[in-house]
Amino acid sequence: MRISIPYGRNLLKAEVPNLIATLEPPYVKELDDPKAVLMDKLENPIGSPSLRSLAENKKDAVIVINDITRPCHSEILVPGIVKVLNEAGISDERIKLLVATGNHRGNTKEELEGMVGSDIVNRIGIYNHDAMDKESIVYLGTTKRGIPVYINKIFVEASLKILTGIVSPHHSAGFGGGRKSVLPGIAGIDSIRPHHSFPIRPFEPSMGWIDGNPMHEESLSAAKMAKVDFIVNVVNNIEEKIAGIFAGDLDQAHKAGVDMCNKVHRVKVPRKADVVITSPGGFPRDFDLHQSQKAVVPAEMCCKKGGVIILVAEASDGIGKFGNWLKSAKEPKDVIDRFKKEGFTPESSSKALYYARALSNFKVIVVTKGVSDRDLKEMFFIPISDIQQAIEESIKIMGQDAEFIFIPHGSDIIPELES
Fold first, then answer.
1. Average pLDDT, the chain
2. Any idea which architecture 2-24+266-417 has in CATH?
3. Residue 148: enclosing H or E segment and its boundaries?
């Protein structure tokens, strides 16, 4: 079987023997006119007054947007939201955009222009959240599980607080979107650290698990403490086009997005395979190895223990901050043991943890030109720059009768074994 694998902004071609399944969400048609749907949702939201009525008599507003690693179509959402705010009496000068970077790096002007358009960049003040800058963070209290809530001052001090985002499968919080724009999106490192550590962080793959998931529940608690007024979230189809828009109450609108996400992204798996080929889905999801880890999670759920996972990711921005945790270990298990003791750190140790989990149970081949072979080997990966060679190597490891599963958009599926 010949397959096409997303890689950056391109596709890689390969021949795969004994392919038992290609795991992709069912095709869902994109909205015919997302801008018109957005305006309707802003006027007729879920569980909330309209955005226009919320904005009346407010002195200013802040709109939280995703960073470049999460394609939530800010170029459509933000202009529509700004238009309503303007019409309600909030001028451009009194609107701020806050980029929910979490613990990621800030986005450049060029990246921001690609995300929201040059018109918005030139009209509206845009600020990258910095989780390490304690001068920009405000303490709001503590959740029932003891997480201290430190949130960006721009958001806390605004009189109208709006979140935008994307509801998509998430490897530890169950689903993205909604409350995650606050914690970790615009939270201080002293909130992110315990939230991303045990026992709040689940150890096993948790895509699609939200009810009873402590990571979800703590994010929701923090967002409520931050007094979010309104959210606008999208659900994308497999082509990253908008299939649904959900606006309104922090909890209710997000749950509606989760319901659609479940219908769009849950995929049946006939049985586990010896080899799983997975891709995050191309740029920006394979922006670096940090983001690309999300595609490994569904592969873990579909691969026989001791099997081979082939991760295909351009990683144009390199490794990410987690690499030193793996490089300083003698074996992957050392990373897991260290995380149990130290928890999350600003070096994105949780990514190292989850890569170590995969490396402890599978052989992981990485097909990329964005990271050197030396760096990959130091992190216990098997580096092979050519996808066909990677497939041939996996057959050598698992035998001529090895069965394959292909996941072209690993960040977008929730696998369910039919058995």
1. 96
2. Alpha-Beta Complex (3.90)
3. strand 148-152
